[in-house]
Structure formats: C-alpha cells, structure tokens
Amino acid sequence: MKDDERKLLEELQRRAKANERAYVREIVSEMKIPEKRAAYICGKWTDKGWYDYGVSVLAGWLTDDGMAA
C-alpha cells in the first residue's frame, strides 16, 4: 500500500470513528491527491470489500472490513 493510500484510509477511519463528515472528495482535495488516483484507490478498495458507494466512487464510505483494515 502506497503512502497516499494509507493516509487516505487512516483519515477515513479517523473521521468515521469520530462521527465526522467523511466526504471522500473533500478529503482527497485537502490531501492534494488527484481525483483520478483517488478513484482508482476507492475502486481497488471496493474490490477488496473495504469500500462501498452509491452513485459516485468518490462519494462512498468504508465498510466494516475497511474500518478493520
């Protein structure tokens, strides 16, 4: 797992545990990760069962497996 991917996962986990808003698109912007890279990461996590989304891959949430990762 690359550094940007690890940092994104940790930030999503932190915000979810604190019941804070966890908008992936917003976090990605704050972290200066390109949206194309973030979409790839989220897609990869979806394949692993760590992440789920409805309409947009950048508007999803971590699953229980993703929280435990």
What do you see in this structure?
By secondary structure, the chain is mostly helical. It has one domain: Arc Repressor Mutant, subunit A (Orthogonal Bundle). It is 61% helix and 6% strand. It has 4 helices and 2 strands. The protein has helices spanning 3-17, 24-31, 35-48, 64-68; strands at 51-52, 61-62. Strands 1-2 form a two-stranded antiparallel ribbon. Helix 1 crosses helix 2 (24-31). The longest helix has 15 residues, at 3-17.
Low-confidence stretches: none
Major beta sheet, strand line-up? 1-2
Cα end-to-end separation: 12 Å
- Give the overall average pLDDT: 91
**Number of DSSP strand runs:** 2
Biggest sheet overview: 2 strands, antiparallel
List the helices and strands in order. Answer: HHHEEH
Tally of helical runs = 4
Estimate percent helicity. Answer: 55-70%
Radius of gyration using CA atoms only: 11 Å
Broad structural category? mainly alpha
Feature tags:
69 residues
Task: List the topology elements.
Blueprint: H1 3-17, H2 24-31, H3 35-48, E1 51-52, E2 61-62, H4 64-68
Antiparallel strand pairs: 1-2
Helix pairs in contact: 1-2
Briefly say what this structure is:
The protein is built from 4 helices and 2 strands.
